[in-house]
Amino acid sequence: MHQSNKPPVRRAAVIAVSIAVTAVASALGVGTVASAAPTAPTTATVSPTASGTPSPSPSATSSAGPAKVAAPAATPSDGSDLAFTEPSTQAAPLALTAVVGTPFSHAFHTTGGTGTVAYAIQDAPSSAYTVNVETGVLSGTPTTAGTFDFEVVALSGATQITEYVRLTVSASPLVFTEPSSTATPLKLTATAGTRFTHTFRTTGGTGRLAYAIQDSPSQDLSVDVETGVLTDTVTAAGTYDFEVVALRGTATATEYVRLTVRAAAPVGVLAIVDQGKPGTTAWSVAPGGTITAFSGEGRPLGTVSSIPAQQNGTLYVSGLAVDRFGNRTDPGSVSGGPRPTLTSSVASDQMVWDQSGYAFRVTFPHASPHRLTITQDGVSTSFAVAVRPVATASVATTSSAGGTLAYTGADETAPLAWALGLLTSGAALLLYRLRRRRA
């Protein structure tokens, strides 16, 4: 008999279809999927029944089809998948911040593309902002405070994308150009009676700038409200601590200042003469020789022409070199510093240095007019001492007649605040206290 060849033909058709599906899947980038082996079509067989009537019944059941597998998404080769790593929209831009005067940078990154990406900035706030075409780094030093909207674009192949940016630039802090603190103040130096200036400057802040001085130790210190120029005409030597404040808008800054005012050039020696006994009359001798008597409580009694002393009596003489304002010019001359020298017009006078009282103890063996000269720091002051015999030792302390002072050129009887006030100045008061402490 001739055998039918139909079943082999059907198997060949199924194999061809599987190959075609695999080829199509490969062309589309879909991985090859193993399918179940094809089965022969279902055939019916006839089984005799009791009645003789044939009943068709299936001889086999259909097998399950191939398993379904999800195919991965296709990667475009034209760069259309280019995207920024920090998504933004015009309504929700990328927020960046910066400070005026402080260098600023931000790197933009992308994914996808053809492998080559170029960057550029659009609608830049100013020429101070640039974007590196290769690295995508935005950089610049802001000069103006405010909020600025602009775009950074990236290009790869035929694809261009946009990053929307909102840059908020805040004003830089208001600060002085010469930093200082309470522990490390700005140190300035001036000379008594010589006009001194220093200009304070600030950076940062916005708005109108104004300066002011706080805790001023003297009315001779002032700061110009607009220029920040400190002017000093202080005549009293010493160290002065104060603050200069800058105000700009709502911002403030403080400069802590320590001003050292040094004494001017010495013009003479300020001498203090007393009897070495508490509560007794004392005398101050100003540069130029003007003698002012003071009570034991320090009350001025007027000027005299000479200091009274008794024969074989003792006076204590101390002195410090001072400038024309009464500031002592030799800071190391007290408590162990260089001592002054003292000479007398009468050779028999006995002069002994008393270190504890920082004074010379002078004894006058002879009754006669004496002239003592005290010298320090290259300057001297001379004054008269009227030594009387013991029986007639009293000397009137009436004011001397009018005359011309060699130093000031003013009349001696005039109220000279500088001369009469020397006892309360730093140098004279120091000497006076040393003398009283020794007594």
Q: Which overall shape is indicated by the principal axes computed on the Cα atoms? A: rod-shaped
- Supply the number of helical segments: 3
Question: Would you identify the CATH H-level superfamily of the largest domain?
Answer: Immunoglobulins
Strand elements, count: 31
Number of domains: 3
The CATH class designation of the largest domain is: Mainly Beta
Integer-rounded radius of gyration: 53 Å
Mean pLDDT: 78
For the sheet with most strands, the description reads:
7 strands, antiparallel
CATH architecture term of the largest domain: Sandwich
Determine the CATH topology of the largest domain. Answer: Immunoglobulin-like
Structural class: mainly beta
Uncertain stretches of 5 or more adjacent residues: 1-64, 392-427, 434-439
Strand content: 35-45%
How many angstroms separate the termini?
161 Å
Helix content: under 10%
> Main sheet: which strands, in order across?
24-23-22-21-26-29-28
Q: Can you summarize this structure?
A:
This protein is mainly β and 439 residues long.
Overall description:
Residues 1-36 form the signal peptide. Residues 37-77 have a biased composition (Low complexity). The chain crosses the membrane at residues 416-434. 9% of the residues lie in helices and 39% in strands. The protein has 439 residues and is mostly beta strands. The longest helix is centred in the first third of the chain and has 22 residues, at 6-27. Residues 1-64, 392-427 and 434-439 have low confidence and may be disordered.
